[in-house]
Amino acid sequence: MESVEPELPPGLGDGESRDRERPFGILRLQDERSPGSRVGQGAGAGTEPTWQAPIFAFARKASETFSAAAPARDPVVEEASRGLKDPMAIERTNLLNMANLSIKGLIESALSFGRTLDSDYAPLQQFFVVLEHCLKHGLKVKKSFLGQNKSLWGPLELVEKLCPEATEIAASVRDLPGLKTPLGRARAWLRLAMMQKKLADYLRCMIIRRDLFSEFYEEHAVMMEEEGAVIVGLLVGLNVIDANLCVKGEDLDSLVGVIDFSMYLKNDNDSNGCCERDGQIAAILDQKNYVEELNRQLSSTVGSLQGRVDSLEKANSKLIEELAIAKNSIIRLQEENVQFRNENIQMLMKTQQHLELVKLDVSAELETYKGTRQGLDDMFTEARRQLREESRMRQVCDL
Fold first, then answer.
1. Is the dihedral of CA 226, 228, 232, 235 positive or negative?
2. CA distances (Å), 310 to each of 113, 315, 317, 320, 322, in order?
3. Is 148 strand, coil or helix?
4. Any idea what DSSP says for residue 243?
5. 218 phi and psi, to 5 degrees?
6. Is 162's pLDDT higher than 70?
7. Is-contact 252 128, C-beta < 8 A?
8. What is the C-alpha separation between 203 and 183, in angstroms, rounded?
9. How confident is the prediction for the chain on average, in pLDDT?
10. Computed from CA positions of residues 97, 103, 107, 108, in that sequence, does the dihedral angle turn out positive or negative?
11. What is the DSSP secondary structure assignment for residue 143, as one 8-state letter?
12. Residues 72 and 23: beta-carbon distance below 8 Å
């Protein structure tokens, strides 16, 4: 970011000393106003409502967690920076305040909008402009044979190595055919991370591993100081927003990033409905949390039912296999039964034929026996007759 900053509204830059004493006080919109402005607003100014939405409370906790990982400042250097009014510190404070206003305005307007945000939504466009200024602040100048430039794509590429989940969007950005400059790729990367609801998680890597990103940033850059941790904490609140951004057809290379301060400068009359809007937003957030909790319960129920379905499918497949085996066994037994029946019939036919032959043989032998016996009976009768005749003749002779 250039050293010459546009003039910001009162309270965005002159609250540096108070921010030093209360680092995270800027998370409340009205705390940056000067005491004189409060007196001028009348008797009701003392009870002006502040931003108390649950998302910003969560963002405050996240920013405190991120800042805890940062190295502690030397008290001597701290006191000296207060006294000298370092311009870089003022720039960081201005950017932090602008990020706070932009994120708060985006969440408030998005929840009032009630639908998925697209690329033409003005508060979302301004948010990306402010975030781009914050990420560009303190970038080191890279010298090449084409000249000097500040590339935001370099730090974002390094995030891919520290956070494997960012590999997918980095590969998608490299595959986009319409992007020709590193700045265009960086803008597409930020929009894809916003749609993934992982923007705060990815930029958190820059806060945790500042030693690695010192190659791209100066020591006084926003992302190298405590303000960067606060901004990343504020970005956590954007997870309640659903965005559907088309980065393939947009000309992100030549996009001009100018902050529109008219979106963040409000009249005194606008503060009257702040409490009502806060209540509406809190109710919307409660409903969203209820729906998300219900969705989690349904997801767990679906998971358990899916587990039961899987077990039933396994049991069903096992029963099908057993049924197939039983069918094969039945078919094999039926074939054996048919074979045995055929063999039985053949054996029965052979036995009947053999029996008929035996009957014929027995009948023939019986007839032969009967004829033989009749002959023998005749011979015996004849022999007896001859014996009697001889006996009679002997008796006659003897007489």
1. positive
2. 41, 9, 10, 15, 18
3. strand
4. B
5. -75, 165
6. yes
7. no
8. 17
9. 76
10. positive
11. E
12. no
Q: What value, to the nearest 5°, has the Cα angle with vertex 72 and ends 214 and 199?
A: 50
| 88: its two tokens | 């870089």
pLDDT at 1 (0 to 100) = 37
CA dihedral 234→263→16→200, nearest 10 degrees, is: 20
- Residues 5-33 have a mean pLDDT of 37
Please tell me the pTM assigned to this model: 0.49
From first CA to last CA, the distance across the chain in angstroms is 182
Concatenated DSSP letters of 247-269: -SSS--SS------GGGT---GG
Residue positions counted in the chain = 399
Q: Tokens representing 328?
A: 């094969």
Neighbours of 301 (CB within 10 A): 10
What type of residue sits at position 254? Answer: S
In which residue are the tokens 């020591």 written? Answer: 219
Angstrom distance (rounded) from CA 100 to CA 235: 9
Read off φ and ψ for residue 358, nearest 5 degrees: -65, -40
Give CA–CA dist 139/280, Å, rounded. 40
Query: Could you give the C-alpha distances from 137 to 126, 134, 216, in angstroms and in order?
Result: 17, 5, 11
User: What's the rounded Cα separation, in Å, for the pair 214 and 206?
Assistant: 10
Structure token pair of residue 395 = 């008796």
Contact 150/141 with Cβ under 8 angstroms? Answer: yes
Check if the beta carbon of residue 188 is closer than 8 Å to that of residue 173.
yes
Running DSSP on this structure, what letter comes out for residue 71?
Answer: P
Question: Would you give the distance in Å from CA 238 to the centre of its chain?
Answer: 18
221 versus 273: which is more confidently predicted? 221
Buried b (16+ CB within 10 A) or exposed e, 160-180: beebeebeebbeebeebeebe
Q: What are phi and psi of 6, to 5 degrees?
A: -65, 150
- State how far the alpha carbon of 232 is from the alpha carbons of 161, 235, 240, 245, 272, in Å: 19, 5, 15, 21, 30
